[in-house]
Amino acid sequence: MEIIEIRENKKEYLSLLLLADEQEDMIDRYIDRGWMYVLDDNGIKGECVVTDEGSGVLEIKNIATVPKFQRMGYAKALIDFIIKKYSGQYSVLQAGTGDSPLTIPFYEKCGFVRSHIIPGFFTANYDHPIYENGVQLVDMVYLQRAL
Q: 2: which of 13, 30, 42, 64 lies 20 to 30 Å off by Cα?
């Protein structure tokens, strides 16, 4: 297993990015200013984009695993890599996600705790309703962990 930084042609991974953020113009808001990493384990299995949000905060903007390889530890491996790589450079690693029973427990298992909420984020910023596990996402839930 190898984690590789992608510096150019990041949109080549658009199909993977769209798994975690299903509107391309939202991805366009952060892809060029973010550091992008792909996890290769006999083929690309996952990706992660992180951005510097200022004040010592590093944010996971996008993290996704190819569906048939989900629940095999690839996303956790990417988060562990980010923690190791940026520890000492940033004080907090945060992630924003919908209030979903699929994603919140994953982040909590990785040591994140709920930080704050942006009410109506998904309904205000996406041109269509976003559903996860049959539930419409409305508010953005931020989770943080110390680096």
A: 30
Q: By the 8 A CB rule, do 13 and 34 touch?
A: no
How many whole angstroms separate alpha carbon 111 and alpha carbon 35? Answer: 22
- CATH number of the domain bearing residue 139: 3.40.630.30
Domain span at residue 132? 2-146
**pLDDT tens for each residue of 42-93:** 999 999 999 999 999 999 999 999 999 999 999 999 999 999 999 999 999 9
pLDDT score of 102: 85
Count of domains in the chain? Answer: 1
The 3-state DSSP class for residue 107 equals: helix
End-to-end CA distance of the chain: 23
Determine contact, residues 45/74, Cβ cutoff 8 Å.
Answer: yes
How many whole angstroms separate alpha carbon 53 and alpha carbon 29?
Answer: 13
